[in-house]
Queue: 2 jobs
Job 1
Amino acid sequence: MGTVVNDPVADIVADVVATTRRGSLMYSRNRFHAPWGAAFPAGNLASFHVITTGACWLTVDGADPVQLTRGDVVLIPSGAAHELADAPERPTRPMAEIAGRAFDDGAPPSDVVIEGAGPATVWICGGYRLAAGVRHPLTSVLPDVVVITAAEARGTGLGAAVELIAAEVDGTDPGAPAVMASLVDLLFVYLLRTWFAEHHDDADWGRALFDPTVGTALSLFHADPGRAWNLDTLARATRTPRATLTRRFAALTGQSPMAYLTAWRMSLAARRLGEGDATVRQLAHEAGYDSEFAFARAFKRATGSAPGQYRKLAQTTG
């Protein structure tokens, strides 16, 4: 994604976000006057909501409603059904019905207004389709809903992204959609970074990202996945004995260092296959394989499909 620099944790999260999404950003800018209620069905979508003015209530899969106020950010990472409304237990309608359109890849941003005499809530919603295939373990540990309040985001990269998005809401610049897409990239990255930073104790991947040894190893893998890494070169680069590195890496990520590297290489290759015309030879080289056959075998073991089959399926369903 290339939008976050000098922050190894954010760089890793940015890489993961880039490989798990498919297609372009879909979003709408909404000004709803009470009473109102919008329903979002379950789907293969990582969606977000940013409250820029007023307040509303979030309900996810029948759980107790949570109040959101200006500056709060919500991420629904795996497409769980949810509702937003001006008051708890307010009847809702599907958001697509309210907007009068479906939110599809490549569609221009939509401005949706519900007129009325009640207080207004201004908010942005949107998301990305999720790519097919196995989810990265970092995203697999996330709850159905991630809420970061304005107070928690204040003074962080996430807070800065929220403020920039809020400033962009009323913009009329013809380049606004491209700007918004970049800001949402930052929003996703910093939202996840903030959540993991606050959940060291109950999410091993949060501990892994911020662990001096494991975090360094992950940063090295993500910075140069095609390098001829082995335990010896990794141990030297992290200045950690091999046995200690292997034990700590597995304890926090659930995989050995080399198993993680292979899985990450295959995730990158899967994304390239779905997006373009890279040859198997090119992908093998990028993944650090001397043999196309060895790469293809590793790819099929990781995804269940040969590279050519995977490309056809990804481009057909994309």
Job 2
Amino acid sequence: MKIHLKQIPLQGLHLDGDEDCPIHDLEAEGIRCAGKLHHNIDVGITGGALWAKGSLSQPVELSCVSCLEKFVHEIEVPGFAVHIELHGPETVDLTPLIREDLLLNLPAHPHCDRDGNRVCEGKQPETVEQDAKRNLDWSALDKLKLKS
């Protein structure tokens, strides 16, 4: 996302829209863009520096660490903020800074049931044998007679 400095008015500029995914090069790592980057950012120039603040949202396709199924996860960056000293060029590219914030908000261990909308098949259900063993563990306490 390149911003032309001469197009920013004194009161600032509001940018709301969609851009191409800035993390498309991570497909080898199992992370695939599942849509466009949505941004809602205010930018301005103060004291020889560009400031930008707002929110970012990027849908990506990840693989669950439990069941290895692919699922779509929305990377949310609600507090995107940058301050860049201006030293000459008429345009400033925010893409590397946006990319960094998106990568920092990727889940370290993605689970497909993280949002509660589905049940992960990789989690092993308890069997009757496991339930019986658990009951045997408490049987010694059942025999305990306490004075009341």
